[in-house]
């Protein structure tokens, strides 16, 4: 339903905007990327829009969500709070074994699927391949962005993805291709058309990320980031008909 999509959009906006605002909350900090510069310069504007988004999300949530959705949403909120706390306030919560990029990918994927689970919990087992596949794709997208931008905070943090997992960074394209091939294999093995479409979208984006990463020296970091974000919209090619 449109209301569910609008709620997801508002929540995604709020999390993303809050993350960027916290990145640039120090007025003396230099904005190293275009997305940080935009939020630093337009701080009052983004906060005003976020207030509208928050009110909209709250009204929709109160009027549409059932108890299961509130429970699942609370879990996603807690996982998001852990990300914010570890990234912006309490470094002690960070772990080398689980970088923030992977955490964001998992949380975003679960957040996208929680309303489906709340309305039809019996279909959740069949959704797992698509949810995990999309989560892996989101994690790969975030990992690529971190690699392409290489901001100072990540360079200085011993527990960051760049420093804790250099083997992974050096083989990003391999993991992209592996994800794409695995998604195609699962799509061929599973008989459900909707799940096949979702996994097909994951495969398309994963292979696209591999192609882009192998040519990353030709493009600016802002362009690469935009393409990585656009790659998360491939499900629209399969489900809008």
Record the SSE blueprint.
Blueprint (H helix, E strand, L loop, with lengths): L1 H22 L10 H8 L1 H22 L2 H23 L10 H20 L4 H26 L2 H5 L4 H4 L1 H5 L1 H18 L3 H21 L7 H10 L4 H5 L2
Helix pairs in contact: 1-2, 1-3, 4-5, 5-6, 6-10, 6-11, 6-12, 10-11
Summary of the model, kept short:
This protein has helices spanning 2-23, 34-41, 43-64, 67-89, 100-119, 124-149, 152-156, 161-164, 166-170, 172-189, 193-213, 221-230, 235-239.
Key features?
single chain; 241 residues; mainly alpha; 2 domains; 13 helices; 78% helix; 0% strand; globular
Describe this structure in words.
This protein is an all-alpha fold and 241 residues long. It folds into two domains: 1-64, no CATH class; 67-239, no CATH class. Helix content is 78%, strand content 0%. The chain has 13 helices and no strands. It has helices at 2-23, 34-41, 43-64, 67-89, 100-119, 124-149, 152-156, 161-164, 166-170, 172-189, 193-213, 221-230, 235-239. Helix 1 runs antiparallel to helix 3, helix 5 runs antiparallel to helix 6 (124-149) and helix 6 (124-149) runs parallel beside helix 11. The longest helix is centred in the middle third of the chain and has 26 residues, at 124-149. The model has no long low-confidence stretch (mean pLDDT 82).
